[in-house]
Specification:
The chain folds into 5 domains: 137 residues, Galactose-binding domain-like (Jelly Rolls); 120 residues, Jelly Rolls, CATH 2.60.120; 115 residues, Galactose-binding domain-like (Jelly Rolls); 69 residues, SH3 type barrels, CATH 2.30.30; 68 residues, SH3 Domains (SH3 type barrels), CATH 2.30.30. The chain has 2 helices and 44 strands. A 6-stranded antiparallel beta sheet has the order 2-1-4-9-6-7, with no helix packed on it. The N terminus is likely disordered.
Length: 600
């Protein structure tokens, strides 16, 4: 008999526990809601009612009789039985929400003090088994009104709250972007728009109207419908970045930075997940790169978007020969290439068996363009995703060319480089095909130069500090097309690349050269031009004039004059006075043409 009594007692206890224990979140909870027609929970409530959950979206309507559509507040309270464990509480609200457990002095979540409109916020608390009182305070000020609260025992491995998507425009892309005219996300955003991704590259510019070029911040919010799995978040920013998933802070690098890469992995269940990316810019260049992808997925090239249609090249450097995995370094450069000899391009890159990918997106006028690459070892070039040069393997300085026809507008160029062993170098140029082969000078210079050095640098100007355009080898012979006044440097044509070599390392034959005048150089005007990519400096304001040298992409020169219609600029480039076409040598700022004399 006593065994039956004990069994019955145990059954009653078990049934009682089951009746009082929600399996997850607030299932089975009964909330007592008090609704106030003010934003401060003051006085007598306008009405009270019982709710089965704190999950409301009133939009721009009133929650009930006697309460306005704006400036109201609500207090919900419930008592629930919870097994012992650590619990995660989530909340999503517009405008403010506060969660207090067991009448604690310190709220568990409080966005009254730290507004987080439209963001999922979370906090963890460890509770003993028993009945616990949960209080939720809510305040609506103006605009849309909604409030959602839930929780879960972390021992059940919750994947997130799966709150509904609230008030997020989906016109262009899934991310709602908010921009603030301060670096701390304070106050009301000065610009709100929908963007396809948080990834942006503003360079030294502003994200948009009302946002300064420095000392600003931004927040992107999206609710993404994802399949179950483990995901990797990767960010790169100048300056600070934070990433939250379902209210959990996964990446927290809120400090000055210059392009560092950060990653975090998270396992998610199938369904909708709230992702928040926050960013601040202090000064200098401003950019952020963000990706979220399943772990193990092949990493596609993820170049930064261009800066206003004409940004620098972004180089991804890998300590392997197949551009695989995460790059060891990501660096902005003026142009692809370099002559690293037996060394490496960066301290973090090994001297052999490395690879690099450079990417840029720029605006180009319509026309035929020539791609030229010379590599030791391998090189590939893509234009708008189409492979135009494919020499991926061991090599010792071979030159490759290809011509492509472009329409006017924005085009993406990708250059990939492979170094196996030994010396490492890459020379790359991209420019109008008509300008790729210079017009031979009309009797200004003639003759040949034979290389006497084992390997000789061909430079962009008559100086040992000028950029190296290419390298030539002993006993190779090239035509002479120019010289400096002292004839200490000869200008030669190397298979279409015009550059300068020191007279000490060549033997000339039948050399005739009328050196350019070195009279008084024109005075600078205060303006400069910057080469958008490699651009020829010519002896006159037309392509028929002789090429004096080449300005490399990203280099600048002082403006000293112009032609009558300001389509060509006369410049002083490292002591060489010549002309660059305005399409490719872009003058900085808005010039006052009255300050720039017509010199041709």
């Amino acid at each position: 008999m006593w065994r039956k009594f004990v069994a019955l007692a145990l059954l009653l206890v078990a049934l009682s526990a089951l009746a009082a224990s929600p399996s997850a979140a607030q299932s089975g909870a009964v909330w007592n809601g008090q609704y106030y027609n003010n934003a401060y929970l003051l006085g007598q409530p306008a009405f009270t009612r019982q709710e089965s959950a704190v999950a409301f979206n009133w939009g721009q309507s009133s929650p009930g009789d006697g309460v306005g559509v704006d400036g109201f507040s609500v207090r919900w309270g419930t008592d629930v039985f919870l097994p012992a464990g650590t619990y995660r509480f989530w909340a999503l609200a517009d405008d403010n929400i506060r969660i207090t457990v067991n009448f604690g002095f310190q709220p568990l979540i409080d966005t009254f003090a730290n507004p987080a409109v439209g963001q999922i916020v979370s906090a963890d608390i460890t509770l003993p088994a028993g009945t616990h009182h949960i209080q939720v305070d809510y305040r609506e000020q103006t605009g849309d009104a909604y409030a959602y609260v839930t929780w879960a025992n972390l021992a059940t491995n919750p994947s997130g709250p799966n709150f509904p998507i609230i008030g997020q425009p989906q016109v262009v892309g899934p991310w709602t972007a908010q921009y603030f005219n301060n670096p701390g996300l304070f106050g009301t955003p000065v610009l709100v728009r929908t963007e396809s991704s948080p990834s942006n590259n503003w360079g030294a510019g502003s994200p948009g109207a009302g946002v300064p070029a420095d000392n600003f911040s931004a927040r992107w919010v999206a609710n993404l419908n994802l399949a179950a799995g483990t995901y990797r978040i990767t960010t790169r920013a100048d300056d600070g970045v934070r990433v939250f998933v379902n209210g959990v802070l996964l990446i927290n690098q809120w400090s000055l930075a210059t392009g560092q890469t950060y990653t975090a992995d998270i396992t998610l269940g199938a369904g909708t997940h709230n992702v928040v990316v926050e960013y601040f810019e202090a000064f200098g260049d401003a950019y952020i790169e963000f990706s979220l992808a399943p772990v193990g997925a092949p990493p596609p090239p993820t170049p930064l978007p261009p800066v206003g249609g004409g940004g620098p090249w972004l180089g991804y450097y890998f300590n392997n020969t197949d551009l695989s995995g995460a790059p060891a370094a990501i660096v902005s450069v003026a142009a692809p290439g370099g002559n690293w000899g037996a060394g490496s391009p960066l301290p973090s890159i090994q001297p052999d068996n490395f690879s690099v990918r450079w990417v840029t997106t720029q605006n180009y006028p319509a026309g035929v363009y020539r791609v030229t690459a010379k590599a030791d070892d391998g090189v590939r070039v893509f234009v708008n995703g189409a492979l135009v040069i494919n020499a991926w393997g061991s090599a010792t300085g071979q030159t490759y060319t290809a011509d492509v026809t472009l329409t006017a507008g924005s085009h993406t160029i990708t250059v990939e480089f492979l170094e196996l062993t030994g010396l490492a170098s890459l020379e790359f140029s991209f420019g109008p095909a008509s300008a790729a082969t210079p017009v031979p000078p009309s009797g200004a210079a003639s003759g040949t130069a034979t290389v006497t050095a084992f390997r000789l640098n061909v430079r962009s100007g008559p100086s040992a500090t000028a950029d190296i355009l290419t390298k030539i080898n002993r006993n190779e012979v090239y035509p002479i097309v120019g010289c400096n006044t002292e004839r200490t440097w000869w200008q030669i044509n190397v298979n279409g690349t015009v550059g300068w070599v020191s007279a000490r390392y060549v033997q000339t034959a039948d050399a005739v050269c009328n050196a350019p005048s070195t009279g008084v150089q024109p005075a600078p005007t205060g303006y400069t031009v910057v080469a958008s990519f490699n651009v020829n400096v010519r002896s006159g304001p037309a392509t028929r004039f002789r090429q004096l040298t080449t300005m490399r992409a990203g280099e600048s020169a002082a403006v000293v004059g112009r032609n009558a219609d300001a389509t060509w600029w006369q410049v002083n480039y490292n002591g060489i006075v010549g002309w660059v076409i305005g399409v490719y040598g872009v003058i900085q700022g808005t010039p006052d043409l009255n300050r720039i004399p017509v010199t041709a």
